[in-house]
Design a protein that fits this description.
By secondary structure, the chain is mainly α. Helices cover 53% and strands 9% of the residues. It has one domain (2-114): DNA Binding (I), subunit A, CATH 1.10.30. It has helices at residues 2-22, 26-40, 86-92, 97-114; strands at residues 62-66, 81-85. It has a two-stranded antiparallel sheet. The longest helix has 21 residues, at 2-22. The protein is globular, with a radius of gyration of 17 Å.
Length: 115
């Protein structure tokens, strides 16, 4: 019985999402969330610390990042979202957070040695 209720709930959720998309409500909400997350992090990438920008498409663009990727069961809940530069977001893909942080730490060490 629980599986049926879960399936019905998920179907209603999908229908609502498509309705929002058709009414043009998805993009404004996504931009508002991106601005909120970036602002809370002082416009810095949560991984590499670079300064991010909101109205750009380059490597420093502020993006919404899922700490636990959706493919691994992560959600769109606010607690699972942070702001990352597009470079880190794209490079991480759906790598586990601990592995990705080790890679970013190595990048920072290499940059510090060059400075």
């Amino acid at each position: 019985m629980a599986a049926v209720n879960e399936a019905d709930r998920r179907a209603a959720e999908i229908d609502a999402a498509w309705g929002e998309r058709e009414r043009g409500l998805v993009a404004p909400r996504r931009w508002a969330m991106r601005r909120r997350l970036a602002g809370e992090q002082n416009w810095r990438c949560c991984y590499c610390g670079c300064r991010t920008e909101i109205d750009t498409l380059g490597p420093r663009a502020a993006t919404i990042e899922h700490l636990t990727p959706k493919i691994d069961g992560g959600s769109d809940d606010y607690e699972n979202l942070v702001s990352a530069c597009s470079r880190c977001n794209n490079d991480r893909g759906h790598a586990p957070l601990d592995e990705w942080l080790a890679i970013v730490t190595a990048w920072k060490r290499a940059d510090a040695r060059r400075a």
